[in-house]
Amino acid sequence: MANRALWPGLGAVAALALLWLALPAGLLGEFVDWMMRAQRAYLAEMRAAVRALKAGDAMAITTLLAGAFTYGVLHAAGPGHGKAVIASYVLADRATLRRGLIVTALSSTAQAISAVALVGVMAVILGLGRAQVESGARMIEIGATALLVALGLIQAFRAATGGGHHHVHHQHDADLHHDHAACGHSHAPPAADKRSMLAVALSVGIRPCTGAIVLLLFCLIQGTFMAGVAGTFAMAAGTGITVAVLAAGAVFGHRLIGGVVAATDRAAAFQRGLAVVGWLAVAGFGGLLLAAAWERPSGLF
Q1: pTM for the whole thing?
Q2: Residue 281: exposure state from Cβ atoms within 10 A (0-12, 13-18, ≥19)
Q3: DSSP string over 10-61
Q4: Closest among 174, 198, 172 to 185, alpha carbons compared
Q5: What are the tens digits of pLDDT across the range 98-157?
Q6: Per residue in 253-275, pLDDT tens?
Q7: Are 142 and 293 in contact (CB under 8 A)?
Q8: CA-CA distance, 279 to 232, in Å (whole number)?
Q9: DSSP at 297
Q10: What residues contact residue 284 under an 8 Å CB cut-off, 6+ apart?
Q11: I need a labelling partner for 114 at 20 to 30 A (CA). Which of 139, 171, 245, 272 fits?
């Protein structure tokens, strides 16, 4: 019975994969090319705004922040697996919309802080060059993505063996007058779930954004480092909004699929199966990120 309950979760994953594969290859390639061209254009616009700011044009900060925000939106919408990790986590952990938005906000904020801290320590304090900064970012990315793989596999094992904290509320008989408070039920996430949420958010977010590093280093050269810091957080806000939309879609998708089996005797097995699939997806996407970081030569983004 439990094995049969895995099929709805696997079917949902397969449907999304088929939808992606169904897109015409030429159209998909054109979209990706457009996204990359747009990001390069906004990076150029940000550089121009920084030069104008250095020349005394105070209003250029508005152009810089707007460009950084838009770059963040486009960067998150383009190729990359960080947002896929968060969507997989939402499905695996049966996260509410609130928790999905929290993990998105945490990861985006952490990404901005990571970029500022990395450039601040290595370039500003230690005086190292771009190649060393990028090499440091690569090492951080390797460690963070390795943590994602480990977390996904551990949580998948716990979900498969019943070690997780997921539970399903079944319809209680009206004559029992079930009282959640009397039974000690709480809808607050258990401590273990909070820890997994923080682990996912930090593992995704501690990987500094390449665009933010480029902006910060350019601003440092131009003597406008704090403008680069402001732009980095604007970039993180744009990234967060895009990923939040995807996380919300994952939450509502889970509710839609879960509602189909909620009234059956397979509901608990279905939730366990979806948790296993979701955490394995977290590990899988983490593995793809790890492989990409490992194969990339040091000093190159």
Answers
A1: 0.74
A2: buried
A3: HHHHHHHHHHHHHS-HHHHHHHHHHHHHHHHHHHHHHHHHHHHHHTT-TTHH
A4: 172
A5: 888 999 999 999 999 999 999 999 888 888 887 888 888 888 888 888 988 999 899 889
A6: 777 766 665 656 666 777 788 78
A7: yes
A8: 30
A9: P
A10: 152
A11: 245
